[in-house]
Structures are given as C-alpha cells and as structure tokens.
Amino acid sequence: MDPMVEYLKEERLPVDPVEASRIRKEAPKYTLVEQRLYMRGFSSPVLKCVDPEEAEYVIKEVHEGVCGTHIGGRALAGKIARAGYYWPSLKIDCMDYVKRCDTCQRFADSHQAPAEQMHTVTSPWPFHKWGIDILGPFPLAPGQLKFLTVAVDYFTKWVEAEPMTTITAERVKRFIWKKIICRFGLPAEIVSDNGTQFTSSTMAKFCQELHIRQSFTSVEHPQANGQAEAANRVILRAEELPQVLWSYHTTPHSTTRETPFRLTYGSEAVIPVEIGEPSPRTALFNPTANEEELRTNLDLLQETREIAHIKEYVVKARAARKYDRRMIHRDFQEGDLVLRKITLAVEKNKLTPKWEGSFRIVEKVGRGAYRLEHLEGRRVPRT
C-alpha cells in the first residue's frame, strides 16, 4: 500500500523518521475518495493520483491518441492536469515523452542555434588555397550557356569564373588548368562540395598527379566553402560576367580592406571614372615617377599582404565570437541512433516530414560531422 494512502487511511507512518516527517507535511494536500488517492488541486477541486503504468497510458492517449495532436511537453502537462490527473513527475515525464516521440522528431523545426563552434578558414599566402563551386542552371545565355564555374582564392579573394553549357569532371579539370594553374601556379589545396564533378576519379587522378589536396565540405553545409559561396551571391548572369568580375576585383573586400587586384598585382587598377573625371594619379601622371611608384609598391606588397591577412583574421575572429555565443553544443557518440534533416529537392509543406531515419552513427569525423549507416548496416553515402 502507498505510504500516503496508509497514513490517510490508518494514520500509520513509515519507520524512517525522515520519510515519516515528509508524509506528515504533505498529507494535507491529499485526500481519499472511495479508497483512491487524490490531490487537492488549483485547476480543479481534486486531481486523481495515478501510478507509473497509468501515467504512461494517460500521456500516450493525450499526446497521440484519438484526439491527440502531438502538442509540446509543457502544454501536454497542462492538459493532463486540467483533465484531472496528477503524479509527482508529471511535467518531467511529459517533456521526456515529447522528446522521444518519433512523429514529433520527424516534423520538428530545424535547430537555429549552431551545434559547433565556428572554425574559420584562412590561407597562409596568395593562391595557396582555392574554393571552387558551380552555379546554375540559369536561364539560357547566348551560346546555350546555363552553368557557371567559380573559383576564389582564399587569400587575395581573387575570383575566376567561366560559363559552361554542361558541367562534367573533364570540364572542371580544364577550368582548373586554364584559369588557376596556368595563371597563378599550382595550388596546394582545392576546396569544393561533394558534387560528382569534384569527387569523380577523373578529378582525383588529376589532383594526385599535381599533388593538389582535395578538401570536401560536409554535405549540405556550404558554409565550409564560404569564399566560393560569398562570390556566388555577387555573380548573377553569365553575359554580365566580365563587368561583374571587374567590379569585384576593384572593390575593397570587407575582411581584408584591400581590393583583390592590389593584393594580386601590387597596385590599384585604373577604373573608368578616373578617365571621365581625372583622379590625381591620372591628371598628374608622370611616366618616370610612375615607374618608381610601381617599384615601391612591389617592394611593399609583402607588407600590404601581411596587414590584409591580419585584418582578415581579426574580422573572422570577431564573427566567430558572435557566432559562438549562440551555440548550444550537441554531441553524439558512435552507436547513437539519429534522424537526418531532409534536404532533397522535394515539395515541402507543413504536412511533409522535416527529418528522415533512423540512422546509426558509425564514426565521429570531427567538427560536428558524422558518418552514418542504415539500421541494417548499409552505409549512408556522402556523410
């Protein structure tokens, strides 16, 4: 018999003095109705006290029964209390049940707070590391061009881009050879997403022969290739590409505070406005002094690049601190069962699940990335 029922019915207390004191203090809150324990309530005169087995039935029926609508944990606890039921861990049990509800998890909104700290990416010197991405398909441009391959140097922010009719590994390889290697030398590293154009054996062999390291971003996490993604927002139409690139190269970047043109060539480019309305350097142009100025600029180029690198580090460190303040760390271990956010291009509405699975974690890659497998043991590709 429950100690509280025993006390209310026969005024018999437990042997343990601490437990006896607790029963005596709590007893005024309870009453017996037809030999059943009830708690005196505020939302209703009395609340029926239920045991763990009855509590599980009540939670399940209210949450997902005939009239259940998969409400949240706090609302679920309130609804159960208003219906006239009580047990000591009511709210905690409701919150826990909702967290474990399979349907609620599959339709839950995505987490807005980051789960990992921001890991900033920099390059030690010009043209050491490039980020590459593919845009499109766009509306057809002259020449049946509807794709755009874009590459960005992580240090100078210099952008190379080329419109294409189709995107294949062979075309991407030619782009890297023509636009990057033949103009700026062999890079040490190329960062890309997991597109088949970059993960193919053709690209792998090409990079291995030239000792170029391939780095791939996490699936559906393009921020890891932030340089290319940032440039993508600037380039809109293939036919306007030369003007867009010119403007981008001659505009100071928000992180380095220098133009990509100056960090690449050592001096600022002459822009059209300096011809229409002569600037000091065009109005007072002196061939002899100009040659000396160019030599001086080249002598000071290394210092300019180092200062730009420091400025970029400061800006990215500030952004990382702001980002990390929003972080709610979430960590999983090998063997844990998880759901994965649905990212395929399917029609989405309020009735469409947002998560798929379950999957089992087989390896912690690091920095919030994991390798997954289906429950029957089959590996999940691109994770």
TrEMBL record:
GO terms for molecular function: nucleic acid binding. SUPFAM superfamilies: Ribonuclease H-like. Coiled coil: none annotated. InterPro entries: Integrase_cat-core (IPR001584), Integrase_H2C2 (IPR041588), RNaseH-like_sf (IPR012337), RNaseH_sf (IPR036397). It comes from the Eukaryota. GO terms for biological process: DNA integration. This is Tf2-6.
